[in-house]
Amino acid sequence: SWLCSSRPYRGRVGGQRDVSHKSDEYAFHPPADAPPARLVMLVTWSLFMGYAALVTLQHRLKDEYDMIPHPQSSTAFTYASQVNYIGNLIFRLAHNFVFACLTPRGRVHLSLGAMVLAASILGGAICIGRSPWIGWVTLAYFIGGVSVGTFESNLLTCLTPLGHATKKWAILGMPLGFTTISVFGFLLLLAGAPLVSLYTLVAAGCITSMVVFARCVPRGDDGGDNGDGGGGTR
Asked: Membrane-spanning residues where (predicted)?
């Protein structure tokens, strides 16, 4: 289809080496004019919706938290929400070691799953469950930081064998995802939508993206299941 058009190429393509002996049936070297896997845009779109939800919805989440009986102090909430940046920084460097058993493609799935978990904790424990325990906020924001810090370099490793056109579609999804929450999400809140609806949107988007990434984005030999787990991020 137009959205999911990249196909595995086997054998010798454009004078490159024969990769047909590899166990991963999707390993390939596409020619320069290979059609892009446009649906990869949804993957970055969803993850960056989650990133925007962590960053731009902090004040709204604090307002929601303050309405819970016996909340922790504002200072405690501020410190709890800042661990997002700590997790992000640590795992931009440490994902190669902590997740050494996973391939870059596996780490992308882990990143999306982690963002689902972070959004589910904030939406479920705070917005719906009305829990005053500040540890939920700390845990959710740290997991969100792990997700963002692990995501970008591993996704690019997976997309490098697919060509520049696929990368362009992936990059396009980043500002679209952030804008979806920071602009349209706030419009929904102004219109009376509950805060939990945005966290639900993030979780649903990332779950959908896991399916899209698995089924519609071909595996290159640098990002498949038979690499060394580090790919081009080492």
From this structure: 39-57, 112-133, 139-162, 169-190, 196-214
